[in-house]
């Protein structure tokens, strides 16, 4: 879910930056903040997915009978 939110925020920031209004400093600064928030959400989602995958693989690769 965080990956999807992050991608949506990045797309929103791109749309804001492609508009001619983004030449104004406040609009550009806001678009930058939205983009950075999108990057953070995407990175945390990817990190979470990697951790969940790692723990799933680690649980499945345990030796039978070992506790």
What does this structure look like?
The protein is mainly α. α1 runs antiparallel to α2. The protein is rod-shaped, with a radius of gyration of 19 Å. The chain is built from two helices and no strands.
| Secondary structure category | mainly alpha
Provide the gyration radius in Å: 19 Å
Q: How many distinct beta strands?
A: 0
Order of helices and strands: HH
* Average predicted confidence as pLDDT: 89
Broad shape: rod-shaped
Note the main sheet: none
Looking at the chains present, what oligomeric state does this protein adopt?
single chain
Q: How much helicity do the residues have?
A: over 70%
Beta-strand share of residues: under 5%
Q: Short summary of the structure?
A:
With 67 residues, the chain is mainly alpha-helical. The chain has two helices and no strands.
Topology:
Layout: H1 2-18, H2 25-60
Helix pairs in contact: 1-2
Please describe the structure with a list of short key phrases separated by commas or semicolons.
2 helices, mainly alpha, 67 residues
């Amino acid at each position: 879910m965080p990956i999807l939110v992050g991608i949506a925020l990045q797309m929103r920031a791109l749309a804001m930056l492609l508009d001619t209004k983004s030449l104004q400093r406040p609009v550009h600064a806001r678009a930058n903040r939205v983009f950075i928030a999108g990057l953070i959400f995407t990175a945390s989602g990817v990190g979470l997915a990697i951790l969940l995958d790692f723990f799933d693989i680690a649980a499945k690769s345990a030796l039978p009978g070992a506790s």
